[in-house]
Amino acid sequence: xxxxxxxxxxxxxxxxxxxxxxxxxxxxxxxxxxxxxxxxxxxxxxxxxxxxxxxxxxxxxxxxxxxxxxxxxxxxxxxxxxxxxxxxxxxxxxxxxxxxxxxxxxxxxxxxxxxxxxxxxxxxxxxxxxxxxxxxxxxxxxxxxxxxxxxxxxxxxxxxxxxxxxxxxxxxxxxxxxxxxxxxxxxxxxxxxxxxxxxxxxxxxxxxxxxxxxxxxxxxxxxxxxxxxxxxxxxxxxxxxxxxxxxxxxxxxxxxxxxxxxxxxxxxxxxxxxxxxxxxxxxxxxxxxxxxxxxxxxxxxxxxxxxxxxxxxxxxxxxxxxxxxxxxxxxxxxxxxxxxxxx
Length: 343
Ligand code: UFG
Description:
The chain contains eleven helices and 13 strands. By secondary structure, it is an alpha/beta fold. The chain has two domains: 215 residues, Rossmann fold (3-Layer(aba) Sandwich); 101 residues, UDP-galactose 4-epimerase, domain 1 (Alpha-Beta Complex), CATH 3.90.25. It has a seven-stranded parallel beta sheet, sandwiched between helices. A two-stranded parallel ribbon has the order 7-10. Uridine-5'-diphosphate-4-deoxy-4-fluoro-alpha-D-galactose binds next to helix 6, helix 7 and strand 8.
């Protein structure tokens, strides 16, 4: 059985992807320094899959530690690189930490892969690279222009894409798949794994579920005066399990496809934009919970509206994000209830 190395595999998207990989028959070795995740996630993965992924508590910036993992596993056929710092606000305050963590880990990983002749890498990127696409580029496809990043975090995604392109140009054996995620939400239907935000959530869905659970008084909707039908911002919210499945398709394609570009880029989204106010209504419908909220001023740096043109991923990967939004929101609520032991 082929082995996939998953960096950041105890994190939110990494843990869901590990489940899907293992259910498709891959062996998985997770490397994670647990800086923003818990080792208990491994129990959740094992409870779902019936097998435990191998785990190494190491930092991807550490060449020697990473080299040891490859040394011990000659069966690694590909790497999925999730490990990264990801809080936009924090990145503004601690840019050097973000550049060190996010750039250093990719560079180290590519060096170690080359030393061990592992040639397939899937990289977690973000729709943040598109900034605010102009109207002609909505929905946004992979050919839309990359815009100057609004935060050090966003910049690390852009620079990492460039690093991958340059490394692939110099080494024709290296194959890379860059996945640009839109807004991942929800949790595994078992509610055994899900998102574990640190402190006060910055992202919408964890704030919504914590408000519904009574941990936060009310949701603050950041602006209702945008140039959108109801004035609130529009995003493409993609179910984390659908997103995880796209990674398996990407790995399968890297291993099996005869004709593929050396570096391929895919948008991973549903193709549908939803406003913040619509999402609140959908959440209430999906869960029967009333969600207290108020409208406040705009959040600095927010994009007004962006949603994906996912046709390339649909056609080339044979993948589609098709879980209905009400099911996705119900999964997020089920997970919050599990965390808070709400019956
Ligand atoms: N929002 C609220 N109230 C909240 C939190 C969010 O109204 O308490 C709104 C935001 O203004 C935005 C939408 O909900 O309109 C989504 O916000 P998120 O923070 O959940 O997601 P973003 O689209 O802003 O951020 C995501 C990723 C980042 C990435 C960014 C790039 O989380 O990692 O996209 O645009 F950098």
